Amino acid sequence: MHCETVKAGMECVFMTKSGCGFNGGSCHQIVESCEGCDRILDLPSGRYCQAYPDPALKWKNGRCNFATHVKTSSGKTSVKINPLKASKRSTRRR
């Protein structure tokens, strides 16, 4: 259904015929950690996350998985391989 409280006219999974079913009855505004994200909606009532209704909860235990402005370090690190285990693995493959 379309939101009728904060994000008027946008699709919302929490909106029901009786109103917003999210905790508190509406979406919550973004937190400082969200600044710079591509998912921020600038609305007359404030700035809200397009992907999640309570951004503070996403940042509570670390990085938000919807954050587009935070880059993860996916560089491969050199891992030491035990030469004894490596030789056993190579003989198993034959």
SS strand fraction: 5-15%
Shape: elongated
Helix content: 10-25%
Number of helices: 2
The strand count comes to 4
Mean pLDDT: 83
Structural class: alpha+beta
- Separation of termini? 59 Å
Reading side by side through the largest sheet, how are the strands ordered?
Answer: 1-2
- What would you report as the Rg, rounded to the nearest angstrom? 22 Å
Q: How is the biggest beta sheet arranged?
A: 2 strands, antiparallel
Low-confidence segments = none
Q: What is the string of SSEs from the N terminus onward?
A: EEEEHH
Topology:
Layout: E1 15-16, E2 19-20, E3 40-43, E4 46-49, H1 55-59, H2 83-92
List keywords for this structure.
single chain, 94 residues, alpha+beta, two-stranded antiparallel ribbon
Could you explain the architecture of this structure?
- The protein is of the alpha+beta class and 94 residues long.
- 16% of the residues lie in helices and 13% in strands.
- It has a two-stranded antiparallel sheet with strand order 1-2. The chain has a two-stranded antiparallel sheet with strand order 3-4.
- It starts with 14 loop residues before the first strand and ends with a helix.
- The model has no long low-confidence stretch (mean pLDDT 83).
Précis, in short:
With 94 residues, this protein is an alpha+beta fold. It has two helices and four strands; from the N terminus they run ββββαα.
